[in-house]
Design goal:
The complex is a heterodimer of chains A (230) and B (104). With 230 residues, chain A is of the alpha/beta class. Chain A is 40% helix and 22% strand. Chain A is elongated. With 104 residues, chain B is α+β, with helices and mostly antiparallel strands. Chain B has one domain. A 5-stranded antiparallel β-sheet of chain B has the order 3-2-1-5-4, with helices on both faces. In chain B, a hairpin with a 4-residue loop joins strand 2 and strand 3. The chains are: A alpha/beta (230), B alpha+beta (104). At the A-B interface, helix 1, strand 5 and helix 3 of A face helix 1, strand 1 and strand 5 of B.
């Protein structure tokens, strides 16, 4: 990989701009594929480039056969996101395990004293109200959202925004009783049963988790399951 | 917090070290690391990341050092049908193809 390609690839990754690296496995010649253009010396015909842009959109790496030999396409999409609402105790192991599993973690908590705690200094933190924070974050099909506060003032607007998004995972911490009351409130906001069924509550796989770290394990496991084995 | 092999390889390169990058490009059957998994190797054989559960790393590092030496990319095949695979022992029984290139 020459320096020009490496620099351009790393710049795109840092800017969270989706990019695929195409490598001819015989010659080693390379080209960067963006959704709106290409960069680099590897010669590819237009149909091939369109096919690679399609792979980029599908987040799927693989090898394509071309007249000049096999070309490996490695997709570098920005990491999937984990949005945690509530900078409470469980948020600490959840953010850490989420980051280990490859997620870009953002914490939302308008209660400044919680959000600015030293234990969250490694993560992106928003002290906006969840409706404003979510409007800014624009969760998409590669986003997971977990609410942890139990406080309707904070969790409800976050879940309302989550249900209006295409997030692949929505989880809400709270007992069955808390969850039933929460669903009733969200229903009043206009969400039907099918929409409400998207919320995992009580959150996490049922592994009998008790401690904050164990609960984080159960939540991260459920998020991985939703992503890899939907 | 996630170990990003490409970032580390770039950092090594900026320190003036020679670096080769190995990438899993094809897998068949039960392969321990998915397509796109990477291993970075520096000129002294120090490495980071993985392209298997540890079975073929030794052979890949050897080829990575050779790629650093001559600057040429390499496409390596490991699997049960491959003589070398018996030697390096791809215990899972899968097959993998690994592309090795010098960085920068």
């Amino acid at each position: 990989m020459d320096t020009t390609i490496l620099d351009a690839l790393q710049n795109a990754r840092r800017a969270k701009r989706p990019v695929a690296l195409a490598t001819n496995l015989r010659s080693g010649a390379q080209k960067l594929i963006f959704k709106d253009g290409t960069e680099g010396p590897l010669c590819l015909d237009v149909d091939m480039i369109i096919g690679m842009q399609d792979m980029l959109a599908r987040d799927e790496s693989g090898t394509l056969q071309t007249g000049a030999g096999p070309v490996f396409v490695q997709v570098h999409n920005p990491p999937p996101r984990l949005i945690v609402v509530g900078a409470v105790h469980i948020a600490d192991p959840l953010a850490r395990m989420g980051a280990m599993a490859g997620f870009g973690v953002t914490l939302i908590d308008p209660r400044r004293a919680f959000a600015t705690s030293q234990r969250f200094e490694d993560y992106a933190v928003s002290t906006e109200w969840p409706d404003d924070a979510m409007a800014e974050l624009k969760p998409d099909t590669r986003s997971a959202i977990v609410t942890l506060t139990h406080d309707p003032k904070i969790d409800d607007p976050a879940l309302d925004a989550a249900l209006k998004s295409s997030a692949f995972y929505i989880g809400a911490l709270g007992s069955r009783k808390t969850h039933a009351a929460r669903l009733a409130r969200l229903k009043e906001l206009g969400h039907d049963d099918a929409a409400l069924a998207r919320i995992r509550g009580p959150v996490g796989l049922d592994i009998g988790a008790l401690s904050p770290a164990e609960i984080a394990v159960s939540i991260v496991a459920q998020i991985v399951q939703a992503r890899r084995k939907p | 917090m996630t170990e990003d092999v490409l970032d580390q390889a770039e950092a090594w390169r900026k320190e003036g070290r020679n670096v080769a990058l190995a990438t899993v490009v094809t897998t068949w059957g039960s392969s321990p690391r998915p397509i796109g998994s990477q291993l970075a190797v520096d000129g002294e054989g120090k490495f980071l990341g993985s392209v298997s559960g540890g079975c073929i790393e030794g052979a890949v590092i050897k080829e990575a050092l050779a790629a650093i030496g001559d600057g040429k990319p390499r496409l390596l095949d490991f699997g049960v049908t491959n003589e070398q695979a018996w030697e390096v022992g791809l215990a899972c029984g899968g097959k993998v193809q690994v592309f090795v290139e010098k960085l920068g």
